[in-house]
Design goal:
Blueprint: H1 13-18, H2 25-29, H3 34-39, H4 43-49, H5 52-63, H6 72-87, H7 91-98, H8 101-108, H9 119-135, H10 137-146, H11 149-156, H12 161-170, H13 181-184, H14 193-198, H15 200-203, H16 207-222, H17 226-232, H18 235-245, H19 252-266, H20 274-280, H21 293-300, H22 303-308, E1 319-320, E2 324-326, H23 332-344, H24 350-358, H25 361-371, H26 376-391, H27 395-404, H28 407-416, E3 428-430, H29 442-456, H30 460-468, H31 470-486, H32 508-514, H33 519-532, H34 540-546, H35 558-567, H36 602-619, H37 621-635, E4 644-645, E5 653-654, E6 665-667, E7 691-693, H38 697-712
Antiparallel strand pairs: 1-2, 2-3, 4-5, 6-7
Biased composition (Polar residues): 416-425
Biased composition (Acidic residues): 615-626
Protein name: Serine/threonine-protein phosphatase 6 regulatory subunit 1
């Protein structure tokens, strides 16, 4: 490597320590470069750290708490560095650890009940174990299989998130496929790890323990090893979950997280992130758990007890809010019950649909929709329930929603009274002495009404019910259609008018693709424009200074051209003289073949003809003669009117009285020098040596054309050298 070459870098402090006759591990751990040296595979350093004694010292920093009177670096820095050394994944060091049972015993001694488990050291322990699972999975799993008490110890520490992650990976409920995992994890079939995890719902009062236990169980439902898939979806396991969830003495967090597991069983993809699903689609291992009809029936057996918790009359708690107060607040556990009902209706189980109708679950959640007018989480789930019922094309659900639950009448009543009711018997009460606010579920009612109108076109039951309600028809015509027109954002005359008529556009890139701009050509033209200073007539001094730059300073790539195009897109697209619809906009005078005699700027006439002139003299002299002679015939009648001529490569000259023009003095650029627009060299001492008289008559004719073109452009006072 470059930094290893002799004479190019100083010696590493780590090498300086290794050069000593005697040194300690702590001296190395105190050096900031030790991790970098490990990653660079410093041979002497790795040979020292691979020793069993040194690995044991590193492990003790990870699993043992430092004394209270210890220095800060011993309590914080050394454990961190020790963990990082292991996670550098140096094979020879990891092999020393996994092949020695005493060292493995020392590592997992951290899980013993009599050991302290700080969050800091727990994180270091989990990182080391996960590193071993990735690099040394087979020997690690063989060790855990021979010491199955490790699983029990990890379940006991499930409230610590780091320990939960270790347990999650040990039982194979994560997205990583470990080497030989299918063979080494078969022994999990004979363990009671699921029962141990579920028992945490009854034996612990900590919400963190309940949340982490539910997270592991949900992960198993999303990606379960074959050994655990059949167990977690069995009716007995679901019954065990509901038994703990419905215990009155248990905290509400047990109910919430138990229902999360049931929801994950019914719909495994529901709780999985989008990134996980994208990764999961590429995997061929693992089993996606789906609830069997027997499992659903086991859940329905406890539905009545769940619906009792939706009754709020016995709850006397109060929660003050900005608009009034709630008595009682809806609560997270009730919200989770409504979500559970919503998922039950999406699985297509006829037994679940019949039970929900008979138990009055749908009717109760619709009442809660109107009673808690500001709980948008509740409104979202109730809307999903109604849409599932209406789209099912089953008369049982459709008639129940429209007839038994009187959904349309309740929507119309809310439209008549759009403010919050002051009835003290309601759970949502406005603040006294203030005007009641407008209810907060109007948007969801609008969406539900639109869904009713949409489905009435294909469902005769819905259509008949709506047509029989004259009040609905009147409200639909006089109020609802106008509201939809007002709330249609694609008809608003503000924001981005270019996107109003195309709702499918998601980005400016699609708008860019619709244009016929040649971006590569525009980039080249923009580069030339800034190179020769013709982009603006008002910035003459900047144009002159631009000649001192390198070509790279004024280069425009495709991305830069798109930026300029975007900034100019506000111009009229129908204008025939638009900047980018005229493909000849950036063309120079000689490039356009005499199509225009008006120079776009002063600097164009000064510099561009001289540069084109040199190329024509070398390569196309005969063709240039014909073009320029034709141009001289056109401009000759105007030569009398020319009084002063500003040349880009020489001093100002005056026209002679006999209508002839004095031959131009051409400025030749010395090697290593640059010419500024007024023809004066940067080095004044070289000016006299840099001028020669041009004897070529063809060149003189070209100069006459350039002079005439300069006359047609705005005049600039001559600048003498």
């Amino acid at each position: 490597m470059f930094w290893r070459m002799t004479g190019l870098s100083t010696a590493s402090p780590v090498d300086s320590i290794l050069d000593k006759e005697s040194f300690t591990l702590e001296e190395l751990l105190d050096e900031d470069d030790i991790i970098q040296e490990c990653k660079a595979l410093n041979t002497r350093l790795i040979n020292f750290l691979r020793d069993k004694a040194q690995v044991e010292k590193l492990l003790r920093y990870i699993v043992e708490e430092s004394p209270e009177d210890a220095e800060k670096k011993q309590s914080f820095k050394f454990p961190f560095i020790a963990c990082e050394i292991f996670t550098c994944e140096i094979d020879i060091i990891l092999r020393t650890l996994v092949e020695d049972e005493e060292l493995m015993d020392l590592l997992f001694s951290f899980l013993k009940p009599d050991h302290t488990h700080s969050a800091l050291l727990s994180g270091y322990f989990s990182k080391v174990v996960i590193c071993l699972m990735l690099r040394k999975s087979t020997p690690l799993m063989n060790y855990v299989q021979g010491h199955q008490e490790i699983i029990t110890q990890l379940v006991d520490l499930i409230g610590i998130t780091s320990m939960m992650e270790v347990l999650l990976r040990l039982i194979g409920a994560d997205e990583t496929m470990y080497t030989g995992s299918s063979e080494t994890m078969k022994w999990l079939e004979d363990t009671n790890v699921l029962d141990l995890i579920v028992d945490k719902f009854s034996s612990s009062e900590s919400p963190e323990v309940h949340a982490n236990a539910a997270e592991i169980l949900c992960a198993i439902t999303r990606y379960a090893p074959p050994a655990l898939a059949s167990k977690i979806s069995s009716p007995s396991f679901v019954g065990q979950l509901f038994h703990h969830a419905l215990e009155e003495s248990r905290p509400k967090s047990v109910l919430v997280h138990s229902l999360s597991v049931c929801i994950s069983l019914l719909d495994p993809k529901r709780l999985a992130s989008a990134s996980y699903q994208a990764y999961r689609s590429n995997l061929s291992h693992g089993t996606v758990v789906t609830a069997s009809p027997e499992t659903v029936d086991g859940m329905l057996s406890s539905l009545g007890d769940l619906l009792k918790l939706l009754e709020i009359s016995a709850d006397e708690s109060t929660l003050p809010t900005t608009y009034g107060h709630l008595q009682p607040p809806f609560g997270k556990h009730r919200l989770k019950i409504v979500e559970f009902i919503s998922v039950l209706l999406t699985i297509g189980s006829e037994s679940a649909e019949k039970e929900l109708v008979q138990q009055g679950a749908v009717k109760r959640v619709i009442d809660l929709f109107f009673e808690y007018a500001f709980n948008n989480f509740l409104h979202h789930h109730v809307e999903n329930i109604l849409v599932s019922c209406l789209e099912s094309n089953k008369s049982l659900l459709t008639d129940h929603v429209l007839v038994d639950c009187k959904l349309v009448d309740k929507i119309l009543n809310s439209e008549k009274n759009p403010t919050l009711s002051s009835d003290p018997s309601k759970p949502t009460i406005p603040t006294e002495g203030r005007a009641p606010p407008k209810i907060g579920n109007s948007g969801h009612m609008t969406r539900i009404s639109n869904k009713l109108v949409q489905l009435s076109n294909s469902n005769s039951t819905i259509q008949t019910h709506l047509q029989e309600n004259s009040e609905w028809s009147e409200w639909l015509t006089n109020v609802f259609l106008k509201r939809n027109e007002v709330e249609n954002v694609y008809q608003w005359a503000c924001g981005r008018p270019t996107s109003l008529h195309n709702a499918g556009r998601d980005s400016d890139e699609e708008d860019m693709r619709d244009r016929d701009y040649d971006v590569a050509a525009l980039a080249n033209n923009l580069s030339q424009a800034f190179r020769y200073g013709i982009y603006s007539n008002d910035d003459l001094e900047e144009g002159q200074g631009s000649l001192d730059r390198d070509d790279e300073d004024v280069y425009f790539d495709d991305e830069s051209a798109e930026v300029v195009i975007s900034s100019l897109r506000l111009s009229d697209d129908n204008d025939s003289s638009s900047l980018f619809t005229n493909s000849n906009w950036f063309a120079f005078e000689d490039d356009r073949g005499g199509s225009s005699l008006t120079s776009p700027s002063d600097n164009t006439a000064d510099d561009a003809p001289a540069k084109v002139e040199n190329e024509e003299q070398d390569n196309e002299e005969d063709t240039a003669d014909e073009v320029i002679l034709d141009q001289i015939d056109k401009v000759a009648p105007f030569s009398d009117d020319m009084e002063t001529i500003v040349l880009g490569n020489g001093p100002t000259k005056e026209a002679n009285g006999d209508d002839s023009i004095t031959p131009e003095v051409a400025s030749v650029e010395p090697e290593g020098k640059q010419v500024v627009p007024n023809g004066v060299l940067e080095n004044e001492t070289a000016k006299d040596d840099a001028t020669v008289t041009s004897p070529d008559p063809v060149s003189n004719k070209k100069e006459e054309v350039a002079d005439f073109e300069m006359e047609a452009s705005p005049k600039v006072e001559p600048q003498m050298g």
